[in-house]
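not sure who needs this but someone in the group chat was asking about Triphosphoribosyl-dephospho-CoA synthase from Methylobacterium gossipiicola so here u go. i didnt clean anything up, its just raw.
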Amino acid sequence: MEAETLGTTRIGAAYRASCLAELDALKPGNVHAYAAGHRMAVADFVTSAEVSTPHLARAGARVGERIRGGMAATLAAVGQNTNLGILLLCAPIARAAEAGGDLETALAQVLDTLDGADAADVYAAIRQANPGGLGTAARHDVTATGPVPALRDAMAEAAARDAIARAYGTGFSDVFTIGLPALAAARAGGLSEPWTTTAVFLAYLGRVPDSHVARKHGHARAEALREEAAALLDLDLGARPVELLLARDAAWKADGLNPGTSADFTVATLFLDRLLG
């Protein structure tokens, strides 16, 4: 997947546009233009996209610097974690886009060279964000003091319990095998935005148990939610089934279910697609 060497202006514009496009789509259980939820509103995410863009797209910055800077700016602006997962996924993509050439190859190279400095910045960002259900780990715990491992090693340790960490070890394979194909299929089927984005979100949620739900409610509930979402994959989104999806949205939010990881991967997919385009 070839991409020219991209300047920070285009990278930043692609990132910001992807964050905003994800908000326009009806994503059951998540925050979107049709409904707020989980004590967060769309405006919080719009502001987060605005203030994190300069850090995410900063020329020459390491991946960890982009994540830590974006998270600090977000917390200062909205006072809560709205985009840690987005930053974790989009920062390596932004760095790879700067390198130019085949974007998938460049991304793999970026992920393979993440070091202890990146890990220190990412650990700091995670501690600041304090994501729900974080818990502790026997090794490479983000709250531990002392030397930190290379970021790629820390992510490998967390891969079994977190889809975003797993992506760091697979070259973002879910984006290339789930997200981008779902987006292409939605377009080929005649869908327009924002329904193409809804299709991407449902593809992730119906294929992979959402890590955010699993951390807060357990793996069994995350798998049950995946099965519920899989049943929605046959929906004719071209008919714009707003009422049906809003009913699912209300039910999942009433149960405290927020498939935030699926939304984060949706933003990363839209971002990568814009850079490739």
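also Residues 133-141 have pLDDT under 50 and may be disordered. if thats useful
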